[in-house]
Amino acid sequence: MSSPKHISYSEFGHNFIHQVVTARRIGSEIQSALESTIAGSIRKLPADLIVVDYLFSLDDINVEPLLEHLPQICFVLKVLGDIKLDVKILNLSLKFTMDVTISVRIDVETYAPVLLKLVPHKVRGRDIRIDLNGENLPSEVLENLMVVEPIVRDQIVKEVNARIEDPKILALASIDVLSLVNQLKPDGA
Fold this sequence. Notes:
The protein is built from 5 helices and 7 strands. The chain is an alpha+beta fold. Strand 1 and strand 2 form a beta hairpin.
């Protein structure tokens, strides 16, 4: 067995967040929050010439540490999913799915005695990646999608930012490490 590699306390903090306080531990809460939020209908242009009904479904959550910001501890939470769209443009009705990646930068603040607070940054349009599922779509469909994509992106930005400020999410963002450790202690320890 090789000896452990010596690392700085900041790297330890990053590793702790990545290995112990992972997105998986709050994944179900994030999933229910996102599913209840990123769904709805958008109407644009005069007389509702464009109507988009959409529903986001979560596929996975990844955490990527931002080691270049050491000694500050921060990471990017990547929420991967699909958004199902029903689009009506004039008399044209389209149904399709887009792959969506939502990247949220999260800073980690520490408080006494051992409390971690995850502080998410608001997302912007560039933090949302949208890729169309499907091949060989007719050119008129692709033209219409060029109109729909920025509308969907703006709506995702608005809804994710609203969820970031939700008291339920803010409560999940405070992690009392001592309390977690005490819950893991065997009886009599």
